[in-house]
Amino acid sequence: MEQSQPPRTDSFPESTIRENDAGAAFVLESKGQWWHAGFHLTTAIVGPTILTLPYAFRGLGWGLGFLCLTVMGMVTFYAYYLMSRVLEHCEKAGRRHIRFRELAADVLGSGWMFYFVIFIQTAINTGVGIGAILLAGQCLQIMYSELSPNGSLKLYDFIAMVTAVMIILSQLPTFHSLRHINLASLLLSLGYTFLVVGACINAGVSKNGPPRDYSLESSKSARVFSAFTSISILAAIFGNGILPEIQATLAPPATGKMVKGLLMCYSVISITFYSIAVAGYWVFGNKSNSNILETLMPDDGPALAPTWVLGLAVIFVLLQLFAIGLVYSQVAYEIMEKKSADVKQGMFSKRNLFPRIILRTLYMMLCGFFAAMLPFFGDISGVVGAIGFIPLDFILPMLLYNKTHKPSKSSLTFWINISIIIVFTGAGIMGSFSSIRKLVLDANKFKLFSDDVVE
């Protein structure tokens, strides 16, 4: 490619010259409506990670917890709205981007940005895949321990079971083919939210309820580290990092459709996030752990809610985790099939079917292996949030919008975007440091393939 040519002309092909791009034609086929995008977005954001919200609040307290939760919600909605506007801007100019990495490299005019986004997205996808399998295995372990308290099966056995199911489900060929699964996922998230909130209220009003303590860490430095770790967890909970790929599933033109999908998603967020955070932290305070369901079922006493309520909530969580694992695997599948599949042959031809089965199986086995080896779900959320979601969801959308729409440097929009970039760059750096610090400290508390999840 000549030096004078912009990178998008050759390196980042548009939809009109994607005849040989199997990742676009198969995995990211564009057939969806706005409500399908809403289903995908809700599954990508509103998942069982919301059960860590009381855990995040214990590092912030009531006031700062509410403030950070609200600011995160407002900033992410704004960022996703700007991202959608950038994608629509490029589409109107004849460049419909269906991949985050192509969009970033095109708009910012930098080839290294292409590989930076690939690296970050891979970290996010793999981290969420590991977390989904780990938490699903933990859900199975919870049910098993209730039915067979002295049973011989270990956490890694349940992780292997979950991985086997994920391998089967991963063979659904396209992102669009997940639309019905993701509608069910949306309903499941509402279902276990209501069940968990009801269980927390029941525990809170019970005379056997736990004593409440909302105090923070005694050491000032420890409070600072805990706060930034909590902010990183909130960033991971609100983040998705795959909005361009979700918008790619929309039938063109995508103008306006993504905003409707975002409104659907954030309607569910407003119901689920605040209710879980308030109910869980109100009851357990600084005794909340990284899975509020575990807190409701203490090891040293009876369950703090009816068994059928907790059991049904665990089942709902388990089922939704399969959908989340599938959604966050799509970018990895698209990258693999862009190289391995032949678009000139059918999606289900032998030439494309066997490589798809092999590669997707290996990917899921890798996620399952690390989930079994490193069982500390809360810490994974913090690291993924700081290193992955903050750059993609809090920084890049503002940069891309300022570059494409060129708001005046004296405008409020320009300075809001610059302020968000500065604040969340600092939060990302501090969050990375504090999350990795906690990861290192917790590494002394577990053995490889442990039967317990470190809190």
Give me the secondary-structure topology:
Blueprint: H1 7-10, H2 22-27, H3 34-45, H4 53-57, H5 61-92, H6 100-108, H7 111-147, H8 155-169, H9 179-205, H10 220-238, H11 243-248, H12 257-284, H13 292-296, H14 307-327, H15 330-340, H16 350-373, H17 377-405, H18 412-442
Tell me the strand percentage band. under 5%
Q: What's the number of extended β-strand segments?
A: 0
| Helix-strand string | HHHHHHHHHHHHHHHHHH
CATH hierarchy class name? Mainly Alpha
Instruction: Please identify the structural class as seen in this structure.
Output: mainly alpha
Give the overall form.
Answer: globular
Q: What's the tally of helices?
A: 18
Question: How many domain units?
Answer: 1
Let me know the average pLDDT: 85
Distance N terminus to C terminus?
A: 51 Å
Concise overview:
It contains 18 helices and no strands.
Characterization of this structure:
This protein has 18 helices and no strands. The chain has one domain (43-445): Amino acid/polyamine transporter I (Up-down Bundle), CATH 1.20.1740. The protein is globular. Mean pLDDT is 85; it is low at 1-17. Helix 5 (61-92) packs across helix 17, helix 7 (111-147) crosses helix 8 and helix 17 (377-405) packs antiparallel against helix 18. The protein is mostly helical and 455 residues long. The chain crosses the membrane at residues 37-57, 63-82, 103-135, 155-172, 184-205, 225-243, 263-284, 304-328, 357-377, 383-402, 414-436. Residues 31-431 form the Amino acid transporter transmembrane domain. It is found in: Endomembrane system. GO terms for molecular function: symporter activity.
